[in-house]
Write a structure and sequence with these properties.
The complex is a heterodimer. Chain A is mostly beta strands. Chain A has one helix and eleven strands; from the N terminus they run βββββββββαββ. Chain A starts with a strand and ends with a strand. Chain B is globular and about 40 Å long. The chains are: A mainly beta, B mainly beta.
């Protein structure tokens, strides 16, 4: 089945530094990827929709300059948390829908998530 | 306005019994998709079941079935013969539009605990 590889799975960084999270579709091409943020014991909140070859579409209230998204190829999307602060500590997870095939209707494939801790 | 509502923050069920997790949704789009995902403590999102707005029959996948009541805008998940490994967070999600390039919006989730 479709697999999305997300890494790192865990990262601890110092306040003020930037962190890049990668999501890679391994056996399919993902025209569109989605980035979510999840605080402990809460739901997944959509941050942005990443489209290959174009600018990402951010949800209301999400800082574009803070959370940089790049989708340079059909298999790779990256989220960079710039100048991270402790309040950015969260679980970040990406998802993609295969370009073709039954997965297009049935499911969005999720990465395994990245737990970011900013100290 | 909330598009996906899960009113049960937590649920208990006895092992081997059935449990229903509630989900209601709100949309004016005639074409939409409803999903249920399971999230264990590891954080991964596991796809369970899908129901399309035009599907005539309720979806079933093994022990999972979706009680789709379109007029009431509800899409409850039924888990039969609960197992200890079913203990997890369960999220209902909706995609508006018929194309999976549309975003998924999640409900607040229900934490299910299966008792031995």
């Amino acid at each position: 089945g479709a697999v999305v590889s997300q890494h790192p799975s865990r990262v601890i960084c110092k306040s003020g530094t930037s962190v890049k999270i990668e999501c890679r579709s391994l056996d399919f091409q993902a025209t569109t990827m989605f980035w979510y943020r999840q605080f402990p014991k809460q739901s997944l909140m959509l941050m942005a929709t990443s489209n290959e070859g174009s600018k990402a579409t951010y949800e209301q209230g999400v800082e574009k300059d803070k959370f940089l998204i790049n989708h340079a190829s059909l298999t790779l999307s990256t989220l960079t948390v710039t100048s991270a602060h402790p309040e950015d500590s969260s679980f970040y997870i990406c998802s993609a829908a295969p370009e073709k095939g039954p997965g297009r209707t049935y499911g969005y494939t999720f990465g395994s998530g990245t737990r970011l801790t900013v100290v | 306005a909330q598009k996906i509502t899960q009113t049960q923050p937590g649920m208990f069920v006895q092992e081997k019994e059935a449990v229903t997790l509630d989900c209601t949704y709100d949309t004016s789009d005639p074409s939409y998709g409803l999903f249920w995902y399971k999230q264990p403590s590891s954080g991964e999102m596991i796809f369970l079941i899908y129901q399309g707005s035009y599907d005539q029959q309720n979806a079933t996948e093994g022990r999972y079935s979706l009680n789709f009541q379109k007029a009431r805008k509800s899409a409850n998940l039924v888990i039969s013969a609960s197992q200890l490994g079913d203990s997890a967070m369960y999220f209902c999600a909706m995609r508006e539009g018929g194309d999976s390039s549309y975003k998924l919006i999640f409900g607040s989730g229900t934490r299910l605990l299966v008792r031995p």
